[in-house]
């Protein structure tokens, strides 16, 4: 079966205050272009999602990889989920010594008989699979380190959600669906805290029969209702991705005051979806003409 590939990425649902929005949009646009360059020549959804997520993990403006928020101890602890449309996945949580958490999550899927590794065990797995280990401080930007030192002096945590998780969802020409999600977690989190990102069905989900999704925002709310599976299941019967995304977020809003979440989606019919209940959520996608588009806030993108 030959399918027209589709691709979308997000840079995290949050407040996005005091950021250069042009730089933020350039970041998600570059990630989407890199993934699309793979898909448009017949490459796999997995390769496209991993490459795009790696670019966002390398970008200092996004809360994943280099640029992750530090925890209350001044360390980076990262979570990631690589969800495959065959209803299989690889996940890692609280990893501290790898450059690309999403690539390690993919290795969990492809190189082990397990699904989920955490903490030191995940870092040890990375080393055993030939992934270079790096000092944790290499993941901390100068800005984040300065903010940590300032907070230590004041003993005052940062308010609000800040930026957020990054993610990508792809449908390749073989009809295969993949979702990739990576994060450094919330600002000043307690050591060992894990949110929704590595939870299959919550932070991400992919099903070759229906579609795929990647979530972002307040993980404790996303986990309560397995937001991504809820949204993907909403595409049964041919419901377009945008309709399903809106319905899922509307449902959360009926159960949780101010859920502060966002989601991107791709349906097996090629439809795209994106919604957020935060102030902003930078996304980039490939339109029907093969051109990469980007936006910071919901503007009826796919209605």
Description:
With 303 residues, this protein is α+β, with helices and mostly antiparallel strands. The chain has one domain (6-295): Glutamine Phosphoribosylpyrophosphate, subunit 1, domain 1, CATH 3.60.20. The protein is 31% helix and 22% strand. It contains 8 helices and 12 strands. The protein has helices at residues 21-39, 45-58, 101-111, 119-128, 142-154, 219-224, 227-233, 241-255, and strands at 6-10, 78-84, 88-95, 116-118, 166-171, 177-183, 204-207, 211-217, 261-267, 272-276, 283-286, 292-295. The strands form 2 sheets. The protein has an 8-stranded mixed sheet. A 4-stranded antiparallel sheet has the order 7-8-9-10. A hairpin with a 5-residue loop joins strand 11 (283-286) and strand 12. Helix 1 packs antiparallel against helix 2, helix 2 (45-58) runs antiparallel to helix 3 (101-111) and helix 7 crosses helix 8 (241-255). The longest helix is centred in the first third of the chain and has 19 residues, at 21-39. 57% of the residues are buried. The model is unreliable at 155-161 (pLDDT under 50).
